[in-house]
Structures are given as structure tokens and as C-alpha cells.
Amino acid sequence: MTTNTKIEVARYNELPMRIGRKVKIAEENIALFKVTSGEVYAIEDKSPHPKGGVLSEGLVSGDYVFCPVYDWKISLIDGKVQAPDYGQVRTYEVQQEDGKIVIII
Q1: What is the pLDDT of residues 50-98, one digit of tens each?
Q2: In angstroms, what CA-CA distances link 3 with 7, 25, 31?
């Protein structure tokens, strides 16, 4: 689903630092994170591990989230799982507009 639609998902000042927030847009489950630099990232909310894991429940360190089930380290910037593990999750473009966080779908 790539339509370049902007969807407001949160207010910037209400997002907790380093704690994931679940967002559902249509059939897509998305994890939203505000990191210590102040940047906000949005990624698919399911670990690429065959048994999955809800990434919005993971531990955030820098620009990475750790899968709460298998401890895989996943980049919030590009969605890539760090070696020695492998895989990738979808990332979403995030914009800040007048204190609002919008995701481009």
C-alpha cells in the first residue's frame, strides 16, 4: 500500500522517550519510537524472526530497538536486523507538522 497519504498518529510532546507506541493504520501494525536525539521513527511492529515479536514492546537503545522475544537488534533508520542475525522490517516516513507526528503511507 503506497499512496503517499499523510496520517496523523500522535502529538510530538505526548510521545515518551525510548518507549514504543503501537499504531494501527488499516491492516498495518506500526511501532512508533521517539529516541533521545528527538527523532521519531516508525517501523513495522513485528520482528522478522519466524516466531515474531512485538517491536513496540522492545528495548530502545540509540537508533535501535531490540526484539523483546529474541533480542534481535533492529535499526530504526533502515529496518535492518544487525548481524549475526538477519532480516528486515518495513520502515515508514515520519514528518513533524505543527507539533503533530504524521506517517506517510
Answers
A1: 888 999 999 999 999 999 999 999 999 999 999 999 999 999 999 999 9
A2: 11, 13, 20
Distance CA 66, CA 47 (A): 9
Integer-rounded Cα Rg, in Å, for the chain is 13
Would the pTM count as exceeding 0.90?
yes
Contact 47, 93 (CB under 8 A): no
Cβ of 69: how many Cβ atoms within 10 Å? 15
Other beta carbons within 10 angstroms of residue 43's beta carbon come to 25
SS (H, E, C) 14-60: HCCECCCEEEEECCEEEEEEECCCCCEEEEECCCCCCCCCCHHHCEE
